[in-house]
Amino acid sequence: MKLIGSNFFIFSQAKNKFEYYFMRIFSSAIMFFVIIQCVAQNKTDVSLYLKKDRNNYLTLVESKSGNLFTKLGHHGPAIENQWLGFRLYFNKKAAIDVYSKAKPGLEIREKKWYPSKNEQRNGWGADYYKVGKTVGLGGVRLWDGKKVVPLHPVSLRSARVEKGEDSSYMEMVSEGVRYKGEKVTILVRVTVFPDKREATVEASSQTGESVQFVTGINYFKKLKVKKSDNYIATWGIHPEDVAAEQVEIGGAILFDSSDFENEIDDGNQYLLISIPTKQMEIRITSANAREAEMNSFEKFEQYLDEQN
User: Fold this and answer.
1) Is 40 helix (H, G, I), strand (E, B) or coil?
2) In the structure, how many helices (H) and strands (E) does the chain have?
């Protein structure tokens, strides 16, 4: 019996047709089982729906105004794995927000990002992260050499979600963004994996021009901040008002320092200015004090150091 590739067998040594077909059926059953197991182990999910039709999940929405913030559930597309949830605001901010969990599991589709206060106290997750007017945790904007340029106004903004075999992603495409006298189209994709306590954020110029991307992490004055050569982390209580209680939360952006030429602290966020490029990639992660294991700044810091 000789193995060809990774998906099927060619049985060159079967003694008769019965044995040949038996081995073919047996191998197909094994491969089916492996595929089912892989799908079952994909502990990620996506969510995108209109508030007026909250049980009808969508894969794509678009708007010429670029603003569906008040019409979409959780204000834009959302994704999660067993540790974290993220959403992209479908408006001019295009910020990334965090959904925190007290225990591993998938929650966003069932609780629509906002469990009741009683449910939060009984083990469900909550929205402890405060974005405000910033990029949030790893949101993307542009830099024109003098100032930050939002991905707005647009000729069209669209959002898409997809759950694959081994990951899930959400993406937002902002078309017709004015940048240095031209109009550019910028795609931002956020991907989660079942075996990684983080998300990958990718930004790309879809119209071919090199641009300077802006990303970063927001903070508040009483938060602890740790900076290294390849990550910026915060820990503490955000002034959030939608959760049942205030809980310490950590956020971190991990990056390759060679991809960025400058860092700006505007008093509300640490912004990273990329070198001129057509694409950029960073990673984001979070933890909170309600978790059983990674529930302190010291443990969060240790985890981040181990990732680099």
Assistant:
1) helix
2) 4, 20
Domain regions of the chain by residue span = 44-306
Contact 246, 220 (CB under 8 A): no
| 20 membership: H or E segment, kind and range | helix 17-40
Largest CA distance in the chain: 77
Return d(Cα 146, Cα 148) in angstroms, integer: 7
Return the SS3 of 169.
strand
At a CB cut-off of 8 Å and minimum separation 6, what does 230 contact? 254, 255, 256, 257, 308
pTM of the model: 0.87
Q: 163, 166, 162: which is closest to 37 by C-alpha?
A: 166
Which tokens hold the place of 65? Answer: 């105004």
Q: What is the pLDDT along the chain (308 residues), one digit of tens a residue?
A: 444 444 444 444 555 655 555 556 655 555 544 444 444 579 999 999 999 999 999 999 999 999 999 999 999 999 999 999 999 999 999 999 999 999 999 999 999 999 999 999 999 999 999 999 999 999 999 999 999 999 999 999 999 999 999 999 999 999 999 999 999 999 999 999 999 999 999 999 999 999 999 999 999 999 999 999 999 999 999 997 789 999 999 999 999 999 999 999 999 999 999 999 999 999 999 999 999 999 999 999 999 999 97
Instruction: Assess if CATH 1.10.150 describes domain 44-306.
Output: no
φ, ψ of residue 181 to 5 degrees: the values are 80, 0
CB–CB of 100/197 below 8 Å? no
